[in-house]
Each structure stands twice: as structure tokens, then as C-alpha cells.
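User: Could you check the structure of this?
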Amino acid sequence: MRRIWAVSTNTIRQALRMKVAAIFIVLLLVLLPVMGLSATGDGTLKGRLQTFVSYGLSLTSLLLSLLTIIASIHAITSDIEQRQIYTVVTKPIRRYQIILGKALGVIVLDIALLVLFGGIVYGVTSLMPRFLNASDEEVQAARNEFYTARASLVPPVLDVQKEVDELYARLVKNDQVDVIYPNMTREEVLKQLTNRKRLEKRAAAVGQTLVWEFRNVKPRDPNQSLFVRFKYDVSVTPPDEQVYGAWQVGDVRQLQPGAQQMQTPILPVTRKDTVRKFWELEAPASVVAKDGFLAVAFFNPPLNETTVLFPLEDGLEVLYKADTFTGNFVRGVLLILCRLVFLACLGAMAASFLSFPVAILFCLVIFVTGTTSGFILDSFGYMSENVSLVYTYTIQGIIQLLPRLDQYNPTTFLVPARLMTWGFLGQVVLVLVLLKTTLLLALALLIFSFRELAKVVV
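Assistant: Sure, the predicted C-alpha cells are below.
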């Protein structure tokens, strides 16, 4: 271990002497505070905070990822190209210790820089309300919707299989399938009918009430608030594009005839909101029953004169504080560290058998593919009708083996104040670090141990 640490400390000094490392470090030191003061967003304090965290962490992750790739490759290829490796291998040190030391040195440097720049982002985020002289209302909104980590509960997916089968059988019997759904396969028709039936279950006609029930709701603090986030759609748009809604949030079980009276309060709210926009209804966390039950009821009053619908994907969800912003931010930084550990080992593996420019290109292709894997997979899924199935599934299989870095983006949790659980982070560590990174490191050790570094000419 002493020999590995000696190689790693030398790698850190070697990386810090690189001009590109100095440029990236200076850029982050200058840009992060400037971005904190210049971020505007939608003009509100919450919008500025969201903009700064999104761009600040994204810029930090991008520059450190590029630095990790360059430093890990340069640490190995420069020793070979400058023939310093000849002196190293003559000493009592194994080749696997060289690779492990190089990778460890880059990872240690990444940890130090990530702590530094993550601390800057966190510090600027915490002090921004003071710098901007925000009002008490803006500060309170930021505390509820940004400086927190909210768990999300969405209504369960309804089982409408029986109704869909009956409706499809009726269409087939009346020879209406090709008329209503021309040029569509049976699977596509069934999908359309399923979405239609599920949407009907989330539509309230005039005078009708919809009730969503949630279980296992566990607010962090019963004295805090929870939020019902919703978006309306309508069958006929009103002239002012607004509809009324009569809401009840709480344990509605106690309103049923013969039910035992409970001490859980029920919050009634009547409001008017613009359609096709997101809104949040605030309720005290005390409306959650002791057994974790919570119901959200919506009544469509006659004043609306139109059917009100809640879209399937983002029509309604319940948000409640489950952790702190600090804890969520720490997990977000650790998520970036998992990416950097993978890239450090990827660079070491590429440098074990490729020259510097080829290894850089190889790693950049994998990095870019990993950060856009979702878009690529969706594109091939859309093109599957025009591209051969063998080609499509071959590409999809290769991409699935690569790291899905776009799924491990901390800003998707921190910007909307969504809870990033330790379970999710543990899953990333298991898949990205323990499995894929270990495989890369094993390949690097295997290739480098058999690589011919020099020939003896007699």
C-alpha cells in the first residue's frame, strides 16, 4: 500500500502541474461566485437559486469530468512516451501497483476539488438571500420549495385492463378498429385505449368529485407543511383560462357514515387557477393520519361549466419534506464523485493500451454517449420501424452496458427540491462503482501487465 500511495502522490503533483488543470481550477474559482451574483432565473429568489445550482453543479461536473479523463490518461501515457516508466519498472514495484496508484491519485485529487467547489456552490446558495435582500415572502417560498428535500407521491396506476379488453372486443365486433385507429397495430390500439380509460378515471365532470388516496406518508416534521402539486386540463377552455376547484386534504375516512371519529384535521380549500400550468396547494403536515393515510379530494363546482382533467404523468402529486437541503446536497456531490471515479478508471484502462490522443477520443466518446444515452435510446426506439431490428438492438445493448450518466444528474433532484434517497445513491455506487468501475480497473491491470514497454536488442 505504501508503494501505491507513493505513486498516487506523485500523480497528484503531476496533474497539478498540467496547464489544463490550472485553467479548469481558475475557471471554477472565478465563474461560480460570478454565476451566483448574476443568475436571474424567473426573477424570484427561488428561480435564481435554481438557476445557479443547476448551472453551477453542471459546470463543476463537466470540467472535473474532463479534467479527470485528461489527468488519468496523461499520468500513464506521459511516463511511457517520456520513457520514465523504464526507471519505474526497474524498482521493486509491480505493474498493478502503478495502475492502482495512478487511478487513486486522480480520485484523491477529484475528491479535494469536488469538496472545494461543492463547498463554494453550497456557500453561495446559502448566502444568496442576504446578498439579494430578498423579501420575507420570497425567503419563505424558497424554504418551502428549494431549501428542502421533498418526497414525491403520485397516485397509483389504475388497473383498467378488463375495461380495455371489453372496449377493444366491441370495436372489433363492429369493425371500427381500422376506422377509428387506421394504420395502427393491435398493441398500439390497446395502448391508446388504456391511456384513454385511465384519463377518464382522472376526469371530473361538473358536480363530480375525484379522490386520491395515499398511504405510508411520513413527513419529517408534523409542524411543517406538505404541498399538493397539480395541473388542470379542461375539455372546453374558459374565456379567462381559469377554473374553480374545491379541495379537501386530510383523512376523509372519518367523513364516511359510521366511521369512528378521529382527531386528524381536514383542510378545505377553494381556489381559482389557470389551466395547463403547475400550481401548489399548501397544507399542514398534521392532516396526515397517524397510520400514514392521506386523501386529496377535488370537487368540480358548477361554476366551471366544463370537465376538469388531471394529466396522467404530471397531473397531481403530493410533496412533503423528508430531509434537509444539506443532506440532499451532500448526496448530490457524492453522485458526481461516483461519475468521476468511473471516468478515472476508464482513463486508466484506455491509457493502458492506447496513445494519449486516441485514449482521449475513446473516453470522450463514451462520456458523451453516457451523458446522452437516454436521448440516443429514445431515438433508436422511434426509428425502430425503419432500421433493422438486429442493428437497433445491437446499438441499444451496447449503450445499456455503458454508464447511464444522464440518469445520475444531481440537479434533477436539487433544482425541484426532490429527495435523493440513500437507497438511490447506493444503487449508483453498486452499479457504476462496484461493478462497472471494478471491471474497467481489472481490464486495465490485465492489459498493462502484459503490455510490452520495451524491447531488448542484442
